[in-house]
Each structure stands twice: as structure tokens, then as C-alpha cells.
Amino acid sequence: MTDDEHVTGAGPDEPTVRAGGPDDADHILRLLDDATAWLVARGRTGQWGTEPASADPRRIAQAQEWAGSGGLYLAVLADRPVGALVVGAAPEEVPPANEPERYVRLLVTDRAYAGRDIGGRLLAYAAGLTRAAGVGLLRVDCYAGDDGALVRWYERCGFTATERFTVARPGRPPWPGQVLARRLP
To answer: Is the pTM value of this prediction over 0.70?
Structure first.
């Protein structure tokens, strides 16, 4: 699979996946803002806090970095980005792999389209990219706090929980993380 290939869904209401680029940082920020608002409305503030990513200079810079990394892919429905995937190197706070890997740096979907398996489709796209590169390991990390629902979601997507880690955050409680791995044939 090349960067300019599109994955087409089964019908007109199914998303396609396209490569992203530097002009897509605002799409990432909108998706993060919407997801954060959804989490806050449910009292789940441990994952991304309470403030919009678009108001945080660190998150704005991160979105710009991801958009320019060559590893951004957007799920699109009717020309509207409804999900973002960033595949790249593992972040330094997670234990390193002992073999070549691809790492999901970001997966976020538009909650207005919940139930359409957009996140699952983006993970399948990441698996295809990983296989195409001749690599047999795809890893991701996620928030492991609260009731562990996000970890269980990744497990339903074919990942296996491996190492746990914690990110220190000055002036705030530490962020509990879980690394998950998926072996690819």
C-alpha cells in the first residue's frame, strides 16, 4: 500500500482513508477537541484533560509535527475528516521493541460518527502499512486509567496488552499508559 492509495469502504456511507499532510493539522486539532469534549461530558478527564487541544501550544505543535511527519492518514466521509491516524516511531516514554515495528502515535475519531468502526478501519489501515513495509509488529499505547475501557477496545481490535508505563506530569497526577502489540503475518 502506498501513501497515495485510498481504501474505499463498502458503500457511500463508508469512509475512505487518504494520506494527510501539513495542511491537515487543524483537522487533527478539531478531532482532538471534539473527543476531549466528549470525554469531559462523561467525566473521563484523565485521558486528555479538560482543555481543548487547539488552546494548548504544546498540542498545537504536536499536531503540526504529526501533520508534517509523512505518517498521517485521515478517514474521510463526504470530504469531512472523521478520523486521524499517525504511524511513526514509538514515543520515548514507552519501553522499546526488540525488533522492527510500526507504532500508532495517534488514533482519534469523530464521536458524531460513533458506531461506524472508523477507529477499527484506521487500525486495519495501519496493519496494512506495517505488512507492506515487511514488518511483523504493530504497537500502540493508550490511556490505562479509569475503568480500562480503552485498553479493552484495543484488545477487541486484535492487540494484546504488554507493558504498562507512567508519564509524570508536573502539577497533575501521573498519566497511566498501556502498550499493546499486534503480531502480523
So the answer is: yes
Q: Determine the distance from the C-alpha atom of residue 67 to the mean position of all C-alpha atoms in its chain, rounded to a whole number.
A: 13
Low-confidence ranges of the chain (pLDDT < 70): 1-12
Q: How far is 86 from 25, CA to CA, in rounded Å?
A: 12
As a whole number of angstroms, the distance between CA 113 and CA 89 comes to: 28
Domains and CATH numbers, the chain: 16-140 (3.40.630.30)
Angle at 35 between CA 2 and CA 179, to 5 degrees: 65
Q: Are 60 and 29 in contact (CB under 8 A)?
A: yes
Q: Provide the residue type at 46 as one letter.
A: G
Give 3-state DSSP helix, strand, coil % of the chain, rounded to 5.
30, 30, 35
Contact (CB, 8 A) for 31 and 109: yes
